[in-house]
Amino acid sequence: MIQSWSRTLIPTAKEAPSDAESPSHKLLTRGGYIRRVTAGVYDYLPLAWRVLTKISNIVREEMDAAGASELFMPVLVPIEFYAGTKRDEAYGDLLFKLTDRKGMVNALGPTHEETITELTKAGVASYKQLPLNLYQIQTKFRDEARPRAGLLRGREFIMKDAYSFHMGVEGPGGLNEAYDAMYRAYVNIFTRCGLSFTAVEAESGPIGGSASHEFMVNCESGEDTVLTCPASGYAANVEKCEIGPRPSDLHAAPAGDLQEVHTPGLPGIDQVGEFMKVKTRNMLKTIVFRVVEDRQGRGLRWVLATVRGDHDVNEGKVKAASGCTVELAPEKDAHAAGFAIGYVSPRAAKHHHTLLLIDPDACPPAEKPPFWVTGSDRKDHHVKYFNWKRDVGEAMLNDPAKVKVADVRNALAGDPSPRSPGAKLEARRGIEVGHIFKLGTKYSEAMGFSILNEKQERQPVIMGCYGIGVSRVMAACVEMSHDENGIVWPLPIAPYHVVITPMKVEPTSEAMRVACELSGRLAAAGFDVLIDDRDERPGVRFKDADLIGVPIRLTIGDKSLAEQSVEFKLRSDTQGKGEMVKIDSVVSRCLGTA
RNA sequence: CGGGGCGUAGCGCAGCUUGGUAGCGCGUUUGGUUCGGGACCAAAAGGUCGGAGGUUCAAAUCCUCUCGCCCCGACCA
Known about the structure:
BirA Bifunctional Protein, domain 2; 6-stranded mixed sheet; alpha+beta; RNA-binding
């Protein structure tokens, strides 16, 4: 493919719009890839569309190879679809809604579980038609509270979403088989796109379901934190990451007499620590959760979770450790029940119907007695020298129905690995570009999609779903791979592989003649070539070539022509001056870099 | 949704405090000189100052309301 710069639209700019903050937003805008239309909504100009097309094609090839079939569903979805699974409420304002002339309310699809389930419900009548894996590459809409960072979190974005349908979980044709195939396809896709990425275990989020993995592009500017164990290869996001065994002791001696301190008007734990001149790691914070459902039927109404002041409670772990579905207690309800929100201490677990979960780091074994500051269970007061044994009492600490030591906090770098004794977790930042879920029967049950199995038993169909943020992949790639001069594309998704810069652009010039001849031979060899035929000064064209990030630049000037050569330079080679390559060897030299 | 900030030419900004009929740089157009890392000279085009209302002889500037956008947080595939 050959394109002249002057015959397409690449509006580069020296300065980025002042509202652009992240590197990908700035560089994609400056490079003439995207243009903001309104908050979180962008034009994709020709360069961007070429990149997106290349990513999409890699996605298609790998999805097809993994046995999936492409289809195309509407953006406009009747609201009833989402109401049927209660996701209209679950999504809330995140769902774009519009009313048509007849007064029908429609949504702009944020994902298509309901739509595809309706479709397969109508089209699949027998277990013999399963398994099935269907996908589309579509524009998705989410009315984000705060769109940000250009393409990384938009309100309109391009996504590949796939859905698989099965009669069973295990064995041939089962969900696990498809899930594993998708996992492998995703590894292939992101590898082929030239991304540095990590697959991590993840929580499945509001889409629901059991197992889940996220694919994260490794990048310091990423919004998400992932933890990895260098010894075992275990990797998970913060929400999911387990922490290895940690010793605990609830029976240490007190470090001193309990003292109450007046701490008026201090909203956060940091302020209290500052006021009392205590490090937050010497404080205990206790979060109150309301029990929505006690799955073990113990009649629990509250779960308290105590962690060290510098740690964060993890709601998912609280759910797992308590065996309850919980939610952060609404302040009003908690007050009514007698919890002094903001000043709650572990002693508050003396309430009836209350379970106390204690993180091991909140009760570590210590040679010298640990010094703790915590709430005083009354407004504007904290206590010093809190001690588990003395202040909560042996009786309660020894009652497994009331108190449990468990991992209930977010993992941090340096925590013990859950998979490899002695190893420590490492933290790094990432941008989520793919997510695969085992959905189970959540949607098929809610929507009545069940069919007869071999034994003539009616059973709900088991589903999986698999997403890739195609437009986010483009942005994440720029975040991962750029320098002060612009974007540095990996070859497989670069808009063009080669940019040819003839020093003289008159159609009759020798430089232009060579440029045309070379571009023909390169195109025949499979390269996408951009000829910078603009009548601009060399500096401008070099700067622009660096900015848009084309991997190979061929410069044709008098000096190189005198040697029957062109100047060959890789975009990734920042200080190199380029090398002279004989015109006849250019194609093979380019092939050598692919 | 809470906190902060910003809307003046395609982009980046000044002017606003102290009202007097809009300016700078980049880019664009034309002519000339240049020509290997964002050239120079000269001329030119381009703006309902986000919108509505108000105060005033007079509003980009002061007041009220409104719309939009960005950043931090909350939330989030």
